Structures are given as structure tokens and as C-alpha cells.
Q: What sequence folds into this?
């Protein structure tokens, strides 16, 4: 069995499951599981409280040097745990499987320790974060310029920056599109004016030619 967060086959980020705990509300935490080998690796997620959490996917196969995201959802709870302490734990098992193995083709004894194959395990702890703690961290970061914000506040700030950048890029694209449309309309307007001018010149030429013809044909 390996230490928290990684083993010989895979790496797991983050190495601890953190959930924002609010009554009657679900919360989730994403785990990035990366295959560190040139082999196909199968994994399975287990927990000490299976009725409390929803894990998808809880079993899978990762291709060599690839990764996947596992979403762990904390079901809505009706009461707070004592002192906001959580004793729940997760166990992520992994083992090498034949190339191009599909998750539906995994034998039932794939994650059985006495099956004769090498089975590695990672333990993950669970912690709860209360909304009041997040708010206090935010206020502390705002009043103390030299202090470091919590990881949650940093994540929120990063998401806001990404959102603002996306909005700015969208506005820029809209401006460029409007410029292209304006130029196209100007070209179309110029082409229409040229056609009208050519028609007028042609009409004047016909009138002058007709007058000259009448003048030359009239008796002196």
C-alpha cells in the first residue's frame, strides 16, 4: 500500500477530498487520476460511507500516460457533523490490465488481493469546509494585504479572472465582426454607386447620339 495521493501506478490530485458543507445541499470534489506507466491501468474507488457519497466513475481503465477525472459528490445532509469533523475515508485501488481492456471486460476478481496480481492502494482523507470559514478567510484576506488567501479563495479568484477574460474576448470578437460587416456594406454601397454612374453615362451618351443624328438628318 502506498502513501496518500500517489502510488507506483497512478498519481491523484488533490490528495484530500474537501467539501463545502451546507445543510440540504450537495457538494462535490473532483479528483484527477493520472496513469504514470506505459501500461493500461484499471482503478476502483471505495469509501467507508457508500450511502453518503456518489462517485462517477467509480471504476475505469486509464490508457498509458493518460488521465481521467473522478467526481465525488457529497449527498445533501440534514445535520452537521460534530465539530465539523469528518472521519470518512476513500480508497483508490489500481492494477495493471492487458492492453485495450475495456471497463466492461474487467473480471470480478480484478481488485481482489488474493488474485495473484499486483494491487496498489491510495488512501484519501475527507474534510468539510463551512461557509462561515470561507467567509472569514475572504474577510481576512481583504483586511490583511500581506496575508495569503485560502485555497478556496484563490480558486474563486482564478475562476473570476477566467470569466472576465472570456467576456473580454467575446466582446473583442463581436467588435471585429461588426467591423467586417461595416466594411462589407461599404463595398456593396460603392459597387451600387458605380453601377448607377455607368448607367447615367450610358444614358447621356445615347441622348447625345440621338440629338446628333437628328441634327445631321435635318435639311439645311
A:
Amino acid at each position: 500500500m502506498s502513501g496518500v495521493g500517489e502510488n507506483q501506478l497512478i498519481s491523484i490530485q488533490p490528495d484530500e477530498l474537501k467539501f463545502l458543507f451546507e445543510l440540504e445541499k450537495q457538494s462535490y470534489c473532483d479528483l484527477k487520476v493520472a496513469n504514470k506507466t506505459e501500461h493500461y491501468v484499471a482503478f476502483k474507488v471505495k469509501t467507508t460511507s457508500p450511502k453518503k457519497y456518489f462517485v462517477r466513475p467509480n471504476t475505469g481503465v486509464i490508457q498509458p500516460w493518460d488521465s481521467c477525472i473522478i467526481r465525488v459528490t457529497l449527498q445533501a445532509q440534514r445535520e452537521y457533523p460534530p465539530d465539523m469533523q469528518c472521519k470518512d475515508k476513500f480508497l483508490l485501488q489500481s492494477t495493471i490490465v492487458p492492453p485495450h481492456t475495456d471497463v466492461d471486460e474487467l473480471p470480478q476478481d480484478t481488485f481482489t488481493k488474493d488474485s495473484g496480481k499486483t494491487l496498489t492502494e491510495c488512501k484519501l482523507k475527507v474534510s468539510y469546509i463551512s461557509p462561515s470559514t470561507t467567509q472569514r478567510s475572504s474577510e481576512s484576506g481583504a483586511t490583511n494585504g500581506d496575508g495569503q488567501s485560502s485555497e478556496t479563495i484563490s480558486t474563486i479568484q482564478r475562476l473570476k479572472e477566467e470569466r472576465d477574460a472570456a467576456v473580454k474576448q467575446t466582446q473583442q470578437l463581436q467588435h471585429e465582426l461588426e467591423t467586417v460587416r461595416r466594411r462589407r456594406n461599404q463595398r456593396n454601397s460603392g459597387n451600387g454607386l458605380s453601377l448607377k454612374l455607368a448607367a447615367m453615362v450610358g444614358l447621356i451618351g445615347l441622348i447625345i447620339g440621338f440629338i446628333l443624328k437628328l441634327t445631321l438628318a435635318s435639311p439645311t
